[in-house]
Design brief:
2 domains; elongated; Udp-n-acetylmuramoylalanyl-d-glutamate--2,6- Diaminopimelate Ligase, Chain: A, domain 1; Rossmann fold; about 35% helix; alpha/beta
Length: about 325
């Protein structure tokens, strides 16, 4: 499982979101190849007064109404010097002045001197920040590829994993026949989103296709209808299909976990033996996981009842 980081350049951000976010490049066209690697922004309060101890220079620098009011009170010479010092601290991707405010000449001069793109937007600061972070989250968050099948079962994103040939695709095919929805077969692209949740999607070339041994490549949408597949879904549970190896937890009291991109997800191991209907088992597992997410654990409730009965039996035997 290879994890890879992604970045987006200022130029691409302008091309993708310039119209939607009313972004305009004021100066620095030659420097728009600077890369943005974090789904966050920085509002440089103390940094504009020369205090850089906690300055986040790797982030887009946002000049909102509060920052602008502070800048307007500083002497132009001091403001320019402070801004230059701030922009030298790290490779700042760009500076964006929001709310349609006229950019102060000292800020223009500092950005030009340090070769940092300067942009403006007519959008209010809070609305702009919310939109730009959503865009950056989609385009810079870590991703990885996993061998497996992702199916949305009863509204729950279930990642089915296992060795080659164990029956992942056949199981997914049966789930689709039962009305559940395919996201991706064979290769699942997983992205860690802001807030620490995982989104699984299908590489564009493989969308709504499956490879089934003995049948070859099939088009799920043509066979089962357009509603039988979707482009992406949250990953909320993992099911590992394995060959029988001996002892398996029969009660299921202990919740297995697996970590993908630093995010823990609930995991379940199902042994594959002749005669077992894996699709039904996964369907029930998804429903059971829904109950667990609501604080209801059938295994734990059964264990409590069993212990209570054992205790009652012991009391009766001792005659107390």
């Amino acid at each position: 499982m290879a994890e890879f980081e992604r970045t987006v350049t200022v130029a691409k951000m302008l091309a993708d979101q310039g119209k939607e976010l009313s972004l305009e490049l004021l100066l620095g066209q030659k420097y728009t190849n600077r890369e943005i690697s974090k789904a966050s922004v920085n509002r440089p309060g103390l940094a504009m007064d020369g205090h850089l101890e906690n300055f986040r220079g790797e982030l887009i620098q946002i000049i909102g109404r509060g920052e602008y009011a502070f800048c307007a009170k500083l002497p132009a010479k001091r403001l320019k010097a402070n801004f230059k010092k701030m922009l030298k601290a790290d490779k700042v991707p760009c500076v964006i002045v929001t709310a349609g405010m006229k950019v102060l000449p000292a800020i223009k001069q500092a950005c030009l001197a340090e070769k940092v793109p300067l942009l403006t937007t007519s959008m209010d600061t809070s609305a702009f920040v919310s939109e730009i972070i959503a865009y950056l989250d989609e385009n810079t968050s870590p991703r990885t590829h996993i061998h497996g099948v992702l199916v949305k079962v009863s509204g729950l994103g279930v990642l089915i994993r296992g060795d080659a040939g164990i029956g992942k695709s056949e199981c997914a095919l049966e789930l689709i026949k039962r009305g559940h929805i395919l996201v991706s077969d064979d290769v699942v692209e997983i992205q860690k989103m802001r807030g620490g949740h995982l989104i699984g999607s299908c590489p564009p070339m493989l969308q709504h296709y499956m490879e089934v041994r003995g049948l070859g490549i099939i088009d799920v949408e043509l066979l089962f209808g357009i509603g039988s597949s979707i482009d992406s879904a949250p990953i909320e549970m993992e099911v590992n299909l394995i060959a029988p190896t001996g002892e398996i937890d029969r009660l299921g009291i202990e919740q297995q976990k697996n970590t993908i991109l630093g995010v823990e997800i609930n995991s379940l191991t199902i042994p594959v033996t002749p005669g077992r209907n894996l699709a039904v088992l996964i369907e029930v597992a998804a429903l059971n996981q829904r109950l667990k997410s609501q604080g209801i654990s059938s295994a734990k409730e059964f264990s409590k009842r069993l212990l209570k009965k054992m205790k009652e039996g012991k009391v009766e035997k001792n005659g107390k």
